[in-house]
Structures are given as structure tokens and as C-alpha cells.
Amino acid sequence: MKTILHITQIGQWEEAKTLGIYRADSLDTEGFIHCSESSQIVQVANRFFKHQKGLVILFIDADKVKAEVRYEEAEIGELFPHIYGELNIDSVFQVVDFESGEDGLFNLPQEVLNLS
User: Fold this and answer.
1) Is residue 109 domain-resident?
2) In angstroms, rounded to a whole number, what is the distance separating the alpha carbons of residues 27 and 67?
3) Residue 110 pLDDT more than 80?
4) Whole-angstrom Cα distance, residue 10 to residue 100?
5) Residues facing residue 84 across a β-bridge
6) What distances in angstroms separate CA 106 from CA 23, 37, 113, one per listed residue?
7) Domain count, the chain
8) Is residue 50 part of a domain?
9) Is residue 105 part of a domain?
């Protein structure tokens, strides 16, 4: 199983469970949902979500995603997974709370370490 990760607000995830699909804001503005590999998740969190509260990490089975998944180069030269379309929630096999420390920075949750 190939696992990709996505950071979102707990409220957005709760709404997605009700709807049966998840739509990130980036789907409307950029045409895809941003995701990360386990080695990228802290870097992404500290760059884009510093000091934010109420976040969760969605653990996604890439093989179960019905929309197209593409690995594309980001501005830093790494390949990041992007989901082109709505995320079917049955592809999410785990959801983990993701809180920053007192300094506003994130550390790798044990659940992500266990993916290795």
C-alpha cells in the first residue's frame, strides 16, 4: 500500500465525512489537493501551518483514491503527490491529530514514523 498524507482542519474533515468526499480549497484555486510523503509532512506543516491549531493528518491509501494522483515537482525540486479531483473518504484509513508545539512548530507524529 502506498500511503500519502494530507493536512487539513478537523472541521473540514468532519464535513467531508458527512458529504462522503473531501474537497480542499486548493481544488478550486489550483485544480488539485496538496499531499505529502511521510518524509515531507513536517516540512510542509512548518512552512504553511505554523501556529495553526485544530489540524489533522489524513492517511490516504493512494491505491484507493478514485481521482488521479500525480507526483509533481514543487518549487523546492521534490516530487509531491497531488490529487486531481475530490478525495473519496473511503481511501482515508487513519486520521491523526496534528498539533504544533509551544513554538508553533510541528514534530513528526509517531503514527507517521510507523509508516516506515
Assistant:
1) no
2) 12
3) yes
4) 14
5) 68
6) 24, 15, 14
7) 1
8) yes
9) no
Strand order in the sheet with 3-9: 3-9, 55-61, 92-98
115 class by beta-carbon count within 10 Å (0-12 exposed, 13-18 middle, 19+ buried): middle
Q: Hey, what's the cell of 86?
A: 475530490
Domain that holds residue 45: 3-100
Q: What nine digits make up the cell of 19?
A: 458529504
Contact 26, 52 (CB under 8 A): no
- What CATH number does the domain containing 30 carry? 3.20.170.20
Q: Give CA separation, 109 vs 53, 56, 76, 95, in Å.
A: 15, 11, 23, 11
pLDDT per position as a tens digit, 67-109: 999 999 877 678 999 999 999 999 999 999 999 999 999 998 8
Q: Is the whole model's pTM more than 0.85, yes or no? A: yes
